[in-house]
Amino acid sequence: MDDEKIIEMFFDRSEQAVSETEKKYGKYCYSISYRILNSNEDSEECVNDTWLSAWNAIPPKKPESLRGFLGRICRNISLDRLDFLSAEKRSKSVTEAFEELELFLSGKEENIPEEIFMRETVNKFLKSLDQKTRIIFMRRYWYFCSVEEIADSMGITENNVRVTLHRTKLKMRSFFEKEGITI
Questions:
Q1: What separation in angstroms does the CA of 147 have from each of 32, 96, 134, 138?
Q2: Sequence-ordered list of residues with C-beta below 8 angstroms from that of 1, at least 6 positions apart, any chain
Q3: Crossing angle between the packed helical segments 158-178 and 131-141, to the nearest 10 degrees
Q4: Distance (Å, rounded) from C-alpha 76 to C-alpha 98?
Q5: pLDDT at 30
Q6: Has residue 148 got a pLDDT over 90?
Q7: Contact by Cβ (8 Å): 55, 7
Q8: CA–CA distance, 57 with 51 (Å, rounded to integer)
Q9: Chain centre to alpha carbon of residue 173
Q10: What pLDDT band is residue 181 in, cutting at 50, 70 and 90?
């Protein structure tokens, strides 16, 4: 079933919207959550919470991309769940990804403008990247894939992934500075 029809069912408050959403995006959302939590039970719970959040958000929201909308909800719920869980249960790749970006951002949060401006700037930066670089960057920092997983899935070396990520972070710093954001 196409996304427009599913969104229409949400607007009509049809419970079938949830089952169709789960059929189409269940594995996708589960993979996002599992990558963060490394737990079947917690991931399943987060995915179920995703459907509830989508039900509560649509309407009034009408997402342009249902996949992206659900992915963001699931990711945020899973990250909230990760905060709740003890440090021992945290996913190594998630922790590493956050540490990499934290070191890059160097704690100068007071110079970062409001969230909306930041989101628009990040999206603009991502659009400026070539497809391969954007995929590597997103897999690492959105989907929390390990360097090894990215290298395997793209048929490149781990070193190539690391170099691409390093260069992309440098480009991001330069891009942000041109936009008036000090990192």
A1: 16, 10, 14, 12
A2: 20, 23, 24
A3: 100
A4: 14
A5: 95
A6: yes
A7: no
A8: 10
A9: 20
A10: confident
- Reading the block at residue 131, the tokens are 């497809």
Tokens linked to 85: 């869980």
Q: What's the pTM?
A: 0.66
* Pair of tokens at residue 177: 């500075």
Name residue 60's amino acid: P
Give the Cα separation of 18 and 41 in Å (integer): 20
Q: Nearest Cα to 138, choosing from 117, 161, 118?
A: 161
CA gap 117, 135 in Å, rounded:
23
For Cα atoms 109, 126, 23, give the angle at the middle one, nearest 5 degrees: 105
Domains in the chain, CATH or no CATH each: 3-86 (1.10.1740.10), 92-178 (1.10.10.10)
Q: What is the pLDDT of residues 17-54, one digit of tens each?
A: 999 999 999 999 999 999 888 889 999 999 999 999 99
**Of 83, 89, 79, 72, nearest in space to 36 by CA:** 79
pLDDT value of residue 113: 41
